[in-house]
Amino acid sequence: MSDTRTGAQIMCEALIREGVEVLFGYPGGAIMPFYHALPEYPQLRHVLVRHEQAAGHMAEGYARASGKVGVCVATSGPGATNLVTAIADAMMDSVPIVAITGQVAAQFIGKDAFQETDVTGITQPITKHNYLVTDVADLAYVFKEAFHIARTGRPGPVLIDVAKNAQQARTVPQWPDRVNLPGYKPTYEGNRRQIREAIRLIGAAQKPLILAGRGVLEAGAMAELRELAERTGIPVITTLHGIGCFPENHPLALGMPGMHGWVHNNRAIQECDLLINIGSRFDDRVTGKTSTFAPHAKIIHIDIDPSEIGKNIRVDVPIVGDAQNVLRAMLEELPPRECRAWVEHIYRIREQHMPRQQYTRPDTDMFMPHDFFTVFSRIINERGPYRVCTDVGQHQMWAAQLIEWRHPYTHITSGGLGTMGFALPAAIGVQIACPDETVWAVAGDGGFQMNIQELATIRQERLPVKIAIINNGYLGMVRQWQELFHERRYSATPLWNPDFVKVAEAYGIPGICVTHQSQVEDAINAAYATDGPILLEFQVEREVNVYPMVAPGASIHEMITESPMEVV
Amino acid sequence: MKHTLVALMQDRPGVLNRVVSLFRRRGFNIESLSVGHTETPGVSRMTIVVDGSQTNVEQVIKQLYRLIEVLKVSDVTHDPTVARELVMVKVHAPASRRAEINSLATVFEARIVDVAHDSMILELCANPDKVENFIDLVRPFGIREMLRTGRVAMVRGAHAHAGDPYVKVA
Ligand SMILES: Cc1ncc(C[n+]2csc(CCOP(=O)(O)OP(=O)(O)O)c2C)c(N)n1
Question: Which residues sit with their C-beta closer than 6 Å to ligand 1?
């Protein structure tokens, strides 16, 4: 008898075996046996959230900052469906999380039992893989497989739905030492012949360009990317999710491309004769109209997921593999070269369309969001280790554009799904992964309210998260589209907002409201001086737009800049 | 052009659903799909027919490979294959026309599997062209009910499901 365990105990022990230290979750009927077992395993820290969606985003934030698998837990039915948005978010952004949900007991499945939902059915299209476990004997190997699948190859979310009877039944666990997945064999090494072809193209190109994405960060290939750029002199564009994989204070760093990318980047893409895509998936926010994207370029695409190659954009040299391995293999044989004339050409465009420093400043003393971001960028870079989680909307794009990103894994945002409500819970997960760093949640007034209840989690867990709300009184990004493409009809975008400082205070968190640009620096410094969490509200000019912009459906060189409708 | 794909997959719960739902959400058009067990316990085999002019076949194969249970996918379109489809047709068959139907069945080597007072069920297992042809000729008698299984295919000779190797190289 002594060797037997309940399914719930097996779940906890499996988590410990996988190196899990923290779970983000919310209890309920179908997961109660698991919660019953949890206190026996003090190595597992459980963070009680206030909404299961937030548990999922916390697991994502934790995973993205720590490089480990994030774990979230919910009960069946509504608990599980509340996780759905975060799971879809993790799928789109290739974030390794394992979601554990309770399910009604096996004999009730299919009977519309209380809080029964077909969660494996619902999450099938938004998970890398999922499981329904109805037999306690399956738990040990399912957990092993789930973590393996989540963290290997192209990472992603895996869901394990565990019927209540399987949590309660007892067995002697059979711990597998290896996974046995004959149909799952990610390719890590790039094909030699293709790598040689890529080297040849790099040698032959006049106007080569690197497009670096999240895959570089996932593979930890920052040093290799830098070596590649420095040895060849090829400039590096980083996608929204690639931010941080190449330091933006490096002379060859060009910043972001695409819908809100810089003019010089989009122009360079349209002019280049070789585009080396490392770990980015040619998202439509990067490519604009695909038929006119990079019309003169040969394209090398390095990706660990073969299905990304040729999905959106034709590719001349496909290389399936881990970015670090592929780049290392490439660097073994790559001769040095230079591209000075080409780089200077791009610099000249950049000077004409000076991005970071210049924007139209109204001659009143109105407080522009840009003022916040430029000061913020300077201070966080001076102050030492930081992480910044952004939400979705205008502020997300300004943060990507205006902060000088120098370090990997410091920028965490919901890019693929564009999930409002992401920043605050993600920051909580990040703060738990990085207790000694300054973790910022930067959100709009709209998105912040989508998971505002997590202020309670911050308080309960005593986390020193710093919050900055960019309050423009609108669903800003939607308002911008209404202004530009819907005849200024501001349908359902003005927001009545609460007093955010008072809200914070109600949760036991201090707050400061900033209404003038002269106060920005002091407020940010005050946040650094505060030991615990703090909320800063920045009331900015209400109708500012993010430029440059490519209109939806347009080619990326057809950019709207600050001088209205200038096509560059 | 119609492509014939052969997919081998672990026979775990829900795998058929995963495949079909993948086709739906990626907007891939399936012409036909048939599935059953193989010589290896725990391994199912699917024959999938897709129209290459509407659907990017290479993407279909790559996306199928993303499913954890999928072991191997081969495009056997350009291999010499034996392809079969089963059709059952219930035709209007008054006594006066039975001889005619009988002789048509004989020519096609179709089997008569049921005879009622004014209808017959014919069954034919043949390559898909012959099946088409047979249905065309039977139609004038009046089809009351018809079913087809969709294509199954096997590569000739010693190779097991040969197919295009490009996906493995990529
Ligand atoms: C959950 C969700 N609902 C709706 C949207 C559509 N959406 C994209 S940006 C945006 C406005 C965001 O407004 P706010 O949070 O105030 O940020 P701002 O754009 O003003 O910086 C909306 C509604 C979304 N991305 N996510």
Answer: A 391-395, 418-420, 444-447, 470, 472, 474-478
DSSP A1: -
Entry field: residues in chain B: 170
Q: Which two tokens stand for residue A214?
A: 């999240």
pLDDT by residue for chain A (568 residues), tens digit each? 578 999 999 999 999 999 999 999 999 999 999 999 999 999 999 999 999 999 999 999 999 999 999 999 999 999 999 999 999 999 999 999 999 999 999 999 999 999 999 999 999 999 999 999 999 999 999 999 999 999 999 999 999 999 999 999 999 999 999 999 999 999 999 999 999 999 999 999 999 999 999 999 999 999 999 999 999 999 999 999 999 999 999 999 999 999 999 999 999 999 999 999 999 999 999 999 999 999 999 999 999 999 999 999 999 999 999 999 999 999 999 999 999 999 999 999 999 886 655 565 666 677 899 989 999 999 999 999 999 999 999 999 999 999 999 999 999 999 999 999 999 999 999 999 999 999 999 999 999 999 999 999 999 999 999 999 999 999 999 999 999 999 999 999 999 999 999 999 999 999 999 999 999 999 999 999 999 999 999 999 999 999 999 999 999 999 988 754 344 4
Using a CB-CB cut-off of 8 Å, the residues of chain A touching B22 are 125
Q: Using CA atoms, how far apart are residues A476 and A23, in angstroms rounded to an integer?
A: 34
Q: Sheet harboring A386-390: ordered strands across?
A: A411-412, A386-390, A438-444, A466-471, A534-539, A511-514
**Nearest residue, CB atoms, A120 vs list B14, B56, B62:** B14
Greatest C-alpha distance within chain B: 62
Would an 8 Å CB–CB cutoff place B160 in contact with chain A?
Answer: no
Q: How far apart are CA A277 and CA B40, in angstroms?
A: 41
Q: What is the per-residue DSSP string for A228-241?
A: HHHHHT--EEE-GG
Q: Which candidate in A164, A207, A298, A466 is catalytic?
A: A164
Interface test with A, best of B68, B69, B72 (most A CBs within 10 A): B68
Atom of ligand 1 nearest to the CA of A477: 19
> What is the pairing mode between strands B81-92 and B152-155?
antiparallel
Tell me which residue of A191, A215, A219, A200 sits closest to A274, measured CA to CA.
A200
Residues of chain B found within 8 Å of residue A121, distances taken between Cβ atoms? 17
Which tokens belong to B3? 């492509």
Closest Cα in chain A to B10? A183
Strands (E), A230-385: 236-238, 253-255, 274-278, 298-303, 317-320
* Residue entry with tokens 């005593």: A462
Cis-peptide into A548, omega within 30 deg: yes
What SS3 state is found at A401?
Answer: helix
Between CA B4 and CA A443 the distance in angstroms is 50
What is the rounded CA–CA span in Å between residue A70 and residue A67?
9
Task: Write out residues 37-96 of B within 8 Å (CB-CB) of A.
Answer: 56, 58-59, 62-63, 65-71
For chain B, give percent helix, strand, coil, nearest 5: 30, 40, 30
> B167 CB near a chain A CB, below 8 Å?
yes
Of A121, A125, A310, the CB nearest to B25: A125
Q: Which of A21, A32, A108, A115 is catalytic?
A: A115
Does A149 sit within 8 Å of B71, measured CB to CB?
no
Closest protein CA for atom 1 of ligand 1: A420
Rounded to whole angstroms, the Cα distance separating A205 from A273 reads 6
For A166-217, the DSSP string reads HHH-EE-----SS---TT-----SPPHHHHHHHHHHHHH-SSEEEEE-HHHH
